[in-house]
Amino acid sequence: MNELLGLLNDGNSRTIEQLAAELHTSPEDISRQLEYLENIGMIRKVSTTEKKSCGGKCGGCSGAECRGCMPKNASANMGKVWEVVR
Amino acid sequence: MSTATIALLGQPNSGKSTLFNALTGLRQHVGNWPGKTVEKKEGTFTYGGTTYSVADLPGSYSMSANSDEEVITRDFIASGKADVVCILADSSQLERSLFMLADYAGLNAPCFLVLNMEDVAKEQGKKIDAKAIEKKLGIPVMMFSATDTKAYDKFYSTLERAIKEKPQINTSSLEKGYEKLNGYCEIKSQLDSNTPSGYTPMWLTAKVLENDKVVSAKLKNTLPDNKVKLIENLSNGNDGAIALGECKFAWIDEILNGAVSKTKTKAKLGKLDRIYTHRIWGKPSVVLTVVLGLLASFIPALPIMGIGMGINALNAPIREAMTSAGSPAFLTGIVCDVVIASLYFIINMLGFVFGVTLVFGLLEEVGVMARISYVFDNTMGKLGLQGKSVMPFLVSFGCTMGGAAGARVIDNWGQKVLTIALAWAVPCGAAWSIVPMLSTVFFGAGAPLIITAILIVMILHMWITAKIFSRGLVKEEDRYGMIMELPPYHKPKWGALFRYVLGRTKDTFFRVTKVVLIVCGIFWLLSFSSGSIEDSALYKFGVAIEPVTKIFGLTWPLFLAFIASSIGKEGAIGVISALFTGGSIFAATTGAAEKAANINEILLANVTRPEALAFIFAITFNMPCLVALAATYQEIHSVKWTAKIAAYYTLTALVLAFAAYRIGLVIF
Ligand SMILES: Nc1nc2c(ncn2[C@@H]2O[C@H](COP(=O)(O)OP(=O)(O)OP(=O)(O)O)[C@@H](O)[C@H]2O)c(=O)[nH]1
Ligand SMILES: [Mg+2]
Q: Minimum mean pLDDT among A70-79, B68-77, B167-176, B246-255: which range?
């Protein structure tokens, strides 16, 4: 897992598949490592638009609710993103 | 009659409650664990003359002390209340779900392993050899489907076997891995005598190395001070946890090696992802996707523009009818020049609101947006930003205010300011409806080229702006890349998508109508005069400033529309609607309005194409709207930087207009 975190040091983001390729392992192996790192608090999920990033105050720009920003449940299709906790 | 207690242990969603409910039926008691808000579920059932009481333990990732659930779970198990622990794992993803078992290994309570979700694993084409796993682990192991009522006989017999044999996990090869770790043997030798009951020295040592605060505290109470000191020196934070985690994963792989085989192959859409995630082709393919998406939005937009044309055609008959009915010029003006002309623009705009929202909603639904965000993410670093900034940018395509507020997730203030500053360069939903509409009016079939040019300018704009702004804001600090899990491609849910698109179009209609009518009305009033138009104050003012605005390729009405667009993009439409099609000014100057009820023709007669080009770029890259300005201030709490950004955008919009005008003069 140190190799995984080390790779991210170069500032480039990677998909799980890319990490698997670079570390010569399977995406399933990467996924479980991510789950572990998240549980011990070394990485954390980045909220995408999930929590209504405009705070529902989008009314001025795009309709009464935040609906205007993105389709409902859009973040469900945005995948998951993790960042390293420093 | 004998009694026995079973505890159900497993990660969230491993099927504990399903099993629990099937076993106990209605003989359940639900409460809370003492002092915690975590639900406590207990129940009983009788089988083969034995009454079993079952505890449905809260789902937790492991036996560490990272959450209330985990602490409750392991305290219960260590307390020895359970005669046997039933560990559940998800057979469709054993390499991760066996982690609970690996973390359990070394606790004293007897246990057996249930590989649940057998049906799901089968569907994935996985063949699992439970007997082989059982041999390696030294505890009963069974395949199972908690949802399948016919599978329970096997469960009962395995349970009875476990009660009888009191099996414990064979940990020898796991411990071999541990022994290679720094400090393991030293700490363990300190613990070998008088350990708290329920735990083995091996398990406790692993937790100490993992920096488990609860275990360390427990040991402090039972061990002499000198041993505590020694242990504290040997345990080493996160690195320890990582090393231990790796040992456990390696052990799981060893267990699964040769016991799991997979027949089915992967999904085929991987190819598309290989293009999107390609180092060289990723960016062009994403830009191409966005361009194609914007162009595709013309398809649903054009029929709606047809409706706009229809409204426009009503203008002449209504004007005639009102005039012949003796309606005063002022009233006729309001109806025809303000209301009908505004509606014409609004309906045309709505066509694009509908089209753009539909196309991008669709991209989102099928999962392409996630790929776009991935590709942009890697560009963020080069702009001096965190990958997280990509979300505010994407949101800004819909609404800059949403983008500014979305920047809240960025903890570094400088990066937040830079992110918002760049988000302003992303044309918002209103721009994406007004600009294609104006482009179609002025450039007809050339409109797609204008859209493409705007996207290219946007990218350059963001790049240059990042260079200019990053100086005072972001330091050359180390940036960690992020990890992304791209979602699988979905089939769109058309019903929900259309409901969203129609809802948004409706909302936009009401909001835009309000703004356009008010702005149009005000400017129409300012320019309305019963006498000669040259007498109106607005005209005099306009002519006075025109020498300056002409530098940027903007005639004075266009310049006023540009100013109005800082309040809100649709404000520009109100001004245009009033000043050009209201007829009062240009009827006086060109005499065209009298005959030409067709608004398109009036616009084309009064605005040259280079001027139109300049205007389109000016309003696209102008300050997005007043609300976005307020949102920006709210997020960055700096009047200075908010003002800086606003001034910068007003200025660059004019510079872009200047450039577009010159280029337009060459082309047209
Ligand atoms: N296909 C399939 N689904 C199952 C099986 N067992 C459980 N499920 C489903 O998996 C989901 C989660 O099951 P639960 O029993 O709630 O899981 P749990 O372990 O109690 O989860 P937590 O209480 O969150 O820890 C439910 O939707 C179940 O219907 C199985 O053998 N096959
Ligand atoms: Mg449950």
A: A70-79
User: Which structural domain, as residue segments, surrounds residue B63?
Assistant: 2-170
Q: What is the pLDDT of residues B513-524, one digit of tens each?
A: 888 888 888 888
CB of A24 within 8 Å of any CB in chain B? no
Give the nearest partner residue to B486 out of A8, A15, A29, using CB atoms: A15
Q: Could you give the domains of chain A?
A: 2-84 (1.10.10)
B150 and B210 part of one domain: no
CB B474 within 8 A of CB B380: no
- What is the tally of structural domains in chain B? 2
Chain A neighbours among B 89-118 (CB < 8 Å)?
A: 93, 95-96, 99
Whether B212 maps to a domain, the answer reads: yes
Strands (E) located in B480-570 = 483-485
Least confident of A4-18, A45-59, B194-208, B228-242: A45-59
CB contact under 8 A, B369 and A61: no
Q: Do B99 and A36 touch (CB under 8 A)?
A: yes
Q: What protein residues have CB closer than 5 angstroms to ion ligand 2?
A: B 16-17
What does the pLDDT look like over B237-250, one tens digit per residue?
678 899 999 999 99
Say if residue B9 is in the same domain as residue B157.
yes
Enumerate residues 6+ apart whose C-beta is below 8 A from B2: B49, B50, B51
Tell me: do B30 and B155 sit in the same domain: yes
Same-domain pairing of B10 and B144: yes
Q: In 10 A of CB B604, how many CB atoms?
A: 16
Tally DSSP H helices, then E strands, for chain B: 34, 10
